Amino acid sequence: MADAHRPDKDKEQDAVRHPAELVAFSKVKAGDTVIDVWPGKGYWSRLFSPVVGAKGKVYAYVPAEIVDMKSDPMGIAKAFAAEPGYGNIEAISDPLAQQPPPDMQNKFDVVWTFENYHDLHDSFMKGASVDGFNQAVFKLLKPGGYYIIVDHAAAKGQGLKNTEDLHRIEEATVKAEVEKAGFVLDEESKLLASTTDDHTLKVFDPAVKGKTDRFMLRFRKPAK
């Protein structure tokens, strides 16, 4: 967090994102190879970069299904990867559910996605398979590697019903989808949970923005 290269716009989000606790929860360490899925403006990629250090690598992964968005997510990723002090960040893009070739399997230590897993189910993803994506993540990770998902909680029983309108997903649904790919739940945290969020508002609504009920899940690829 004290990295001198971090922009002020990132530091301004620290109070609601709890970066020290979340980076610790991710288990990212020196020398690791990390994939930051749907990296946005680079907040987490910039944090992981000094943690993994010169011997590590951070891949800012932009799903190919969204590269044509007006916001130009790939252009943004390439821009923050080129910032001074972040030479170990590389922006990459592939189709969401593309299965990795043999030489890329069992190579990564951590796959991370923050408040974007629900978007993988949305119609603008052009029918990409979330099951296929989770299977690809399983193949990419080393045995014992971690898959971390932080997202906005939907009400119990809502499943995938609110991924597009409210940008929320039910925690139990995420667990079932990821475990289906072969992962085991390693740890969950209530650090970002909120009892004042009744799950009925869009996450961008000023009444709940930055204060939504969010779940933190860390899955592990079995060592054997």
Automatic annotation (TrEMBL):
Gene3D superfamilies: Vaccinia Virus protein VP39. This is Methyltransferase. It comes from Luteibacter yeojuensis. The lineage of its organism: Bacteria, Pseudomonadati, Pseudomonadota, Gammaproteobacteria, Lysobacterales.
